[in-house]
Design brief:
Helix content is 13%, strand content 6%. It is mostly loops. Pfam families: DUF5709 (PF18970).
């Protein structure tokens, strides 16, 4: 040894040699800072000494896709659908829009008209792109024509 004496604790160092930053990363967690669980019931004196107890049965070892072959082949659709759990509509925080089943849609505002338009004929008004509904053209409408709805009638 060279004769250098080391202090027993950091508190034995002179005040100017101590770390000026308060290092609390090595302090023991209090009960309120722990994850939820029953650790304080087993050892109320020291929650960190209680440890962690794993589940009785490991999870996912019998699920699809664990082996290399299953991963490469992919899971059949009927297997995925069997595992699917439908969402509870009460838990979704519904706003009332789009919640009804067996409907064509529920959104009604100024940009979606209720009445279906017939054949549209473009007006000659320069750069403006307005069209007039001239009625159904005798035959079935194409998908694009059927998607057009009347929003409102402009006066004048």
């Amino acid at each position: 040894m060279t004769g250098i004496e080391l202090p027993d604790s950091p508190d034995d160092l002179p005040a100017d040699d101590r770390d000026s930053v308060d290092d609390t990363s090595h302090e023991q967690l209090q009960e309120a800072d722990l994850l939820d669980g029953d650790a304080p019931e087993r050892d109320p004196e020291d929650p960190l000494d209680a440890g962690w107890i794993p589940n009785e049965r490991t999870r996912g070892v019998d699920a699809w896709g664990v082996t290399q072959r299953e991963e490469e082949d992919g899971e059949p659709l009927d297997g995925r659908l069997r595992r699917e759990i439908p969402e509870d509509p009460d838990d979704l925080g519904s706003d009332g829009l789009g919640d009804a089943s067996d409907t064509d849609g529920e959104l009604y505002d100024d940009e979606v008209g209720n009445a279906r338009s017939g054949r549209l004929v473009l007006r000659d008004e320069g750069d403006e792109g307005y069209a007039d509904d001239v009625g159904v053209d005798g035959a079935g409408a194409s998908a694009e024509e059927a998607a057009m709805h009347v929003v409102g009638q402009d006066e004048g």
